[in-house]
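Appendix C: a fully annotated inverse folding record. The material below is reproduced so that readers can follow the format used throughout the book. The structure is listed first as tokens, followed by the designed sequence.
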């Protein structure tokens, strides 16, 4: 029997608690096939069947029940180790803020604003993909990440910085490209690009209780493929852009979807690693977004920092940020 990885244990606990691979994959922001492969690898390592797969979900074997108890204990111990090491290094530690490449300018502005205040724990930026933000947090590669759409990981705290309009991304020669705005009904019959990777974010079904607009279009798994499909006019895509569509990639046009959902832009971070540096960064950034919101014309104001992450107490900033703000 080989060594078990913490990552495998985290995945198994999610599947056992959800009782379903699809829900567990959504919670972990990963694809279901990748999750299934990880669980099979864990079972091979353990030399025992942990889950019984059925059409309705999964049930635990006797070995699975034992693994769930031990796994929860192991994850709690790992979290305690991480917290203790973090606290020991807080005097020198910087705060690493992660986001997808499309948000590079936003990340740079947030970090520059924070560092200009000469903090004890300066911040730095790392850029990844939409898909890998939560993995960066879990692995310790990042302390804070930008995240849009519902967040189902109960091990994370979060705060909404603002709510962004949904825009429809179309090719520059698309018949809709000249429109100032669109409504969902205008997309009837339009092929809508489907994102195969984890973390669909703007296209997350949780944001669209009445279902996604348009008709099912081509499936893609990376940003370059998505842009190629849109530029060629093979499909339209959903994106979170400024209300005027500014920032749309070259060869595309962003058009505001008037009756689309408001997409929350959040800062998220692990509950177990809520360090003073994280609290200061979040508090500073929340204040900066509120100041920008108050300076904007009333017609452009959204919901800056108005709601906590799902499952957190109501009434504004959630968790330790609320405490930090109260502490001044």
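Designed amino acids, in order:
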């Amino acid at each position: 029997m080989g060594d078990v990885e913490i990552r495998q244990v985290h995945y198994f606990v999610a599947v056992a608690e959800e009782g379903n691979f699809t829900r567990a994959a959504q919670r972990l922001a990963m694809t279901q096939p990748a999750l299934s492969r990880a669980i099979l690898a864990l079972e091979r390592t353990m030399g025992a069947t942990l889950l019984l797969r059925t059409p309705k979900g999964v049930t635990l074997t006797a070995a699975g029940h034992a693994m769930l108890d031990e796994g929860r204990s192991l994850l709690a111990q790992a979290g305690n180790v991480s917290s203790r090491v973090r606290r020991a290094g807080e005097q020198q530690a910087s705060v690493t803020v992660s986001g997808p490449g499309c948000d590079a300018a936003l990340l740079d502005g947030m970090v520059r604003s924070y560092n200009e205040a000469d903090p004890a724990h300066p911040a730095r930026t790392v850029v990844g993909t939409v898909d890998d933000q939560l993995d960066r947090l879990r692995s310790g590669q990042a302390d804070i990440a930008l995240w849009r759409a519902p967040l189902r990981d109960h091990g994370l705290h979060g705060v909404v910085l603002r709510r962004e309009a949904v825009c429809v991304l179309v090719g520059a020669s698309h018949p809709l490209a000249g429109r100032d705005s669109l409504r969902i009904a205008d997309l009837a019959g339009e092929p809508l690009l489907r994102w195969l990777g984890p973390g669909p974010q703007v296209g997350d079904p949780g944001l669209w209780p009445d279902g996604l607009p348009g008709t099912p279009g081509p499936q893609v798994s990376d940003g370059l493929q998505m842009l190629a499909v849109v530029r060629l006019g093979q499909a339209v895509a959903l994106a979170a852009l400024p209300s005027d569509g500014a920032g749309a990639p070259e060869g595309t046009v962003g058009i505001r979807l008037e009756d689309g959902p408001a997409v929350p832009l959040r800062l998220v971070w692990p509950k177990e690693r809520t360090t003073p540096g994280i609290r200061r960064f979040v508090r500073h950034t929340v204040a900066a977004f509120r100041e920008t919101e108050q300076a904007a014309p009333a017609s452009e104001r959204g919901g800056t920092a108005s709601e906590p992450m799902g499952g957190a107490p109501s009434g504004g900033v959630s968790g330790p940020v609320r405490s930090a703000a109260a502490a001044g």
